[in-house]
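Lecture 7, part B: from sequences to assemblies.

Below are the input chains for today's worked example.
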Amino acid sequence: MERFVQVVVDGVATGSIYAAVALALVLIYRSTTIVNFAQGEMAMFSTFVAWGLYEGGVPLGLAVLTTLGLSFFAGMAIERGLIRHFEGGETLTLVIVTLGMFILLNSLAGWIWGFENRGFPSLFPDDSVTLGGVRLSVESLGIVAVLLAVVGLLTLLFQRTKVGLAMRAAALNPDSSALVGIRVGHMLMLGWGLAAALGALAGVLVAPRLFLDVNLMGSVLIYAFAAAALGGFDSALGAVVGGWIIGVSETLAGTYVDFIGSDLKILVPLGIIFVVLLVRPSGLFGQSEVARA
Amino acid sequence: MTDRRVRIALVCAVALVAVLIPFLFGPYRVGQFTLVLIYAVAALGLNLLVGYNGQISLGHGAFFALGAYTGALLIEKADVPYLATLPAAGALCFAAGYLFGVPALRLRGLYLALVTLGLAIATPQLIKRFDDLTEGTQGLTVEQPTAPGWTGLADDQFLYLLTLAAAAIMFLAAWNLMRGPIGRSVKAVRDGEIAASTIGVDLAATKTRVFALSAAYAGVGGALYVLALGFVAPEAFTLTLSFAFLAAIVVGGLATVSGALLGALFIEFVPVYASDVNDALTGVIYGGVLIAFMWVLPEGAAGLPRRLRELVLGRRHPEVADREDHLKAPVRGVPAGKA
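Predicted structure of the full complex, as structure tokens:
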């Protein structure tokens, strides 16, 4: 029983990381209906920057905060400099462009930092606490706490501030928003910036659990996609709940189903994506699409 | 009319060069050109799906791998004559593509991209998982076809010409299919699903069949690949391969038959020269090229002559204009570049 609880808590922690990436995907999808395939690689690149700063002697906390800031501006720059040109175009065009970014960032990181594995220090002490007779690692609890804090901050931003209101308006109806004086372009840039920072956060959280290399986020991205599909691509709440469900089912399947083991765990999110899209394509919390001829 | 004559002359010239290649180059180069033809078959299959039908697959490396392992196992474990492995791999991949395509039908645009991306990522692991059959990371060695004595050809020349014959059949079939009524309904689905269904195109059947056909092309490519290399291992079928196919059709030209060949030249020779500079350069070029082509030349290298003619004559070919406007059409009322 103790082991079961540990596995579940561990799953929720992993799921929180997926949820962070899924939130980033949802942020961009809601404002621009683009699914950013490069989200994971942007996060991997950011994590390498944080690692570089840390290796250069910057304290870990400061290195991570600096990276989050840099990622925010880099995300805005990518939207303004590249994505803006394609916005409103065909899905196929945008998928190809974000995939191009995926390959480009992956290879650039390999060029700059090499292809070998590196250790990444954890933000949390390597300790455990006993709760109700079950030993839980501080890291797992810390990751869940960070995610909850992020969700709280995002909720505040979108529900309680003027900028958040403008962002929601710009996503909902760009034309009318522009008419009432909202700088729609700026709002989209802001969305990409926030998404990049969220991805970077997920990167520095997941890196200590895996090894830092250029393929750090490859499978994380698939899990995040599954989380977003399960929760509904247009629902932030869905992304978080979806992330947790994916994280828990992944760790449970990896631990208790022999055939799956650790190397075929990737099939779990794929199966989930398939089932969700067949049974309820809009996801658990998403709104179904209405097509107009 | 002149347009048609120019085109026929061009096809004849390409065919002539293609037949002469094994007699002009050494065995190493001939081997490279054999691979070009193989990639061209797979890229053509992907182009049927992406370019002509507007569906997105990032996982064609998986079908290529399935075809390769089918060919390898049939030859090594079942002693099937090598020529018979090509249709067998094609048929199996057609069936696999059909089964995959049935649920994939409901996965529009993005979701299909997602699922196929996952498939591409999982492929090497899946191959390793079934190691009783595939020998895992060790890979399978396959006996390659040798040139029959009466031809007087070296083995590499024979392999090349064999591949060329197979590729020519696949290209002719695709070209014929896409210019006829089936091709028109395939393109109609891409250009407007609702409109296509109102004029009687069965969306579900069209999409699944195109997906299956495109998987079959990748499968035949995979079976040819085994004959050409005499060896298969899971490392050959990573995500990079699927991305390379996508880069090939974007560079060569979406929805063109000739683009597959141009794209295959690109993905065979760029890595050869790029890896001299840096291991990462190939990826940088692929990524940069995907973005740059979508920005500057969405119709790919096959569209370059048309584009140049426009520049010189100062007007757009009506068909190209149509396709371009479609690619750039604002979907949600955000004028492109003006939001």
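Note for the exam: Chain B is about 75% helix and 0% strand. Keep this in mind when comparing with the next example.
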